[in-house]
Amino acid sequence: NLSLSDLIGASISIAPASRLKSPALPIQSEREPLPSKGLSGCSFGGRFYSLEDTWHPDLGEPFGVMHCVQCQCEPQKSRRGKVFGKVNCKNIKQDCPDLGCEDPVLLPGHCCKTCPERKKPSLWSQFCEKVDDLHKSYNDRSYLSSEEVGSEESRTDFVAVLTGVTDSWLPTSSGVARARFSLTKTSLAFAITYKRMDRPSKITFLDSAGTAAFEYRVPKGQSHMICGMWKNLAKPLMRQLQAEQIHISMSTSVSRREEVEGKIIKHRALFAETFSSTLTSENEHSGMGGIAMLTLSDTENNLHFILVLQEPHVVPIRVQLVYRQHILREIRANVTSHDPDFAEVLTDLNSRELFWLSRGQLEIAVATEGRDPRQISGFITSRKSCDTIQSVMSSGDALTPGKTGGVGSAVFHLHDNGTLEYQVQVAGLTSDFVGLTIELKPRRRNKRSVLYDLTPEYNKATGRAQGSWSRLEARHIHMLLQNELFINVATAHNQDGELRGQIKALLYNGLEAPRHVLPVTLAGQFVTPPVRTGASGHAWVSVDRQCHLNYQIIVAGLSKSDDITVNAHLHGLAEIGELDDSSATHKRLLTGFYGSQAQGVLKDISVELLRHLDQGTAFIQVSTKMNPRGEIRGQVHVPNSCEFGTRGEEEEDGDDFLAKDAEELKKDPQTCFFENQHHAHGSRWTPNYDRCFSCSCQKRTVICDPVICPVLTCSRTVQPQDKCCPVCDERKELKDVKTPEKVEEHLEGCYFEGDQKMHAPGTTWHPFVPPFGYIKCAVCTCKGSSGEVHCEKVTCPVLTCAHPVRRNPSDCCKECPEEEKTSAALEHSDMMQADGPRHCKFGKNFYQNSDNWHPWVPLVGEMKCINCWCDHGVTKCQRKQCPVLTCTNLTRREGTCCPECAEEADLMLKSPDKRKTWRH
């Protein structure tokens, strides 16, 4: 099988980018295929592909995905008739079609040029042009910049309409459900509302072949909202999802008559939607249904809407806006199978209509016309979601930014009748509290626009405000769901506001705590000694049934000078307010994160730390390079009954019911069976036969790697019974160490994202990179107390034999067989490792130290957008940095490395001078 290094033609080391979470590792040869346990397929780039799978090879940073190279896992037969896979890659650029247009464009992520779309403006395009205005950026200082938002906002939204199954002689269901999905990385969050059916018991996702790809057992409850997560989507399923080939079904029982289903589709109106309606029929077992997505114009009282109907034929329809059976507006149109979505604008809604809209009292009705008229209808309410509407208030985001070390935290819940419940907590104010308000962005400098005053509900003794706002207008609901409102705390010395925060929706991540429990506030005033910082934050912390700690942290107010690289620690303290760093077991690094959000699960928790959480003597602390001893901190109280520490050895990343139910794991085609136990895809565990191995499940394939123990610098070590590696005898070490500085240096060390562990200064280890396991051909070192991890390729000894061998499949370097070990003179290629500045070998070429070149990749040719250089024997490569573009229509001209705005590209081509320069 081919590998990354086979395709590139050399083993290279990638220069770490400034924003990478962990140092990039050398790309190593993967000539030994991943063990497949009898599965037929291909190993390529550390991943396993099934027979007939096709893909574009990803060479990693800085090369990226080769869109003009297509690889396929071709089935082959051995002499014994056994089927195996062979990777075949080819350049597909010559297969690009001849285009008839004059000005074809190369879109980002494509290999072939395409003709620019020139469609006649339709109602749908007019709608999209109107709702595109909702993405306008405001000048309020509380808005996060694109750099601060980070990867947590990188998401794709989908929607599905679920109606009764009609391809059966059985009576179909009367139920209609609407599902909204958000894909971030490999996790799909879903929020489902349903009508005219009992609470479902099971939700099933079906792939393109109609087989169950994922099942979710619906927990019991009274709400008509279902919130769930599908974690660790496999790449083929993600491609099917993007291609709108995934279906979803929902059933209340075994009987099919209680089942509804629909196709998951992308929809451009999702980002602008602030009101919605689920349309059902009054007739039993009709199988009819649909949804309406609605939004208000930015400045005018116009209501835009899109209908998504389950009607395949050419149908004349009549759309009515109704209040208590009185028809307010009526529109007639045709809906066809080629254009099933119907878009329209209801202009100039009067004050009464807007009031009824805000209270959820307006109804939208869709009726077909003809011999057999049918009608579906539903009330219009605010958009339902599993996301948490919340805000972090900081002094750094105040209208006049400051550094007070205070914090404000707010959580909101919007009801269908327009009532907004709120809970606010404030701490660390530098002067007397004056006012708490919900506001718009300032119309002019320091000219606040107050919508609602929460001051009467604020309790100065507790620092909290709790109540409801029942007079929310339709415009305010729209702005709230578009993240356009702010909450402000005014004090005696800061009349315009000491703390301020943007009210934003926090994406649902599978945990219920953010939707029901107030977060822990994090402030500089809570650090010992207090820190005057412009940053603040809040965190949701919970302990599940497996005694794993789930956390989600939101930070606001960090300026660029504070460095956006943030680390969060969890501290268990002997007494509240004391930071006793001499107890290493009570300090755990949660995560290193970039931007404003971090979340994760801490699984191997000590009994002492769990006891501190239960007693309320634990703290979460966020530190930065400017304040390595803590920038903001908060006290954590999580009652739990985990007296014996973390329960269960196996670590599943899926939902709890997947970890619990062995029968469900058996049905999952991605499950691994190992040591008489089923393991979920993506899980990692320690096998029973040897504690010094770490195993993981990757698509029915079990991969076990030996544990590499770090080198200990302490004078005395102990060997725990349930661990593979020895550890320092802390009691002995703490007695020997006289100065607290040395203890701090040992405790800080380096955090490595791969194994998610702390490493002491000066220690070296083979990096663990999920899901590939331990990388034997790389060694990482913790550099002093600076916290920097340096990883480099293992330098193999010079061999003089003609036929070196690798003694073990997991070994990095080859050795000479005993009979071939000689002291012959070094060949020319081996002289490259002599003393002095080392040379570099890339492909078949040698380069002097400090040489620069563009890499040449087979099937692609010279990659002019990537520069490589030789740094004392190590090849480093980096892609040319492209500017951040704010336009939506991107294109890439031939001979350039970076995309550009389509409008600017057209101007350059139309300019005679620039066209001449471009051709030369």
TrEMBL record:
It is found in: Secreted. GO terms for cellular component: extracellular space. InterPro entries: Chordin, Chordin-like_regulators, CHRD, VWF_dom. Residues 40-116, 670-729, 748-817, 838-902 form the VWFC domain. Belongs to the chordin family. Gene3D superfamilies: 6.20.200.20. Its main location: secreted. One of its GO terms (molecular function) is BMP binding. It comes from Takifugu rubripes. Residues 154-269, 271-384, 385-508, 514-641 form the CHRD domain. Keywords: Developmental protein, Glycoprotein, Repeat, Secreted. SUPFAM superfamilies: FnI-like domain. This is Chordin. It holds the Pfam family VWC. One of its GO terms (biological process) is negative regulation of BMP signaling pathway.
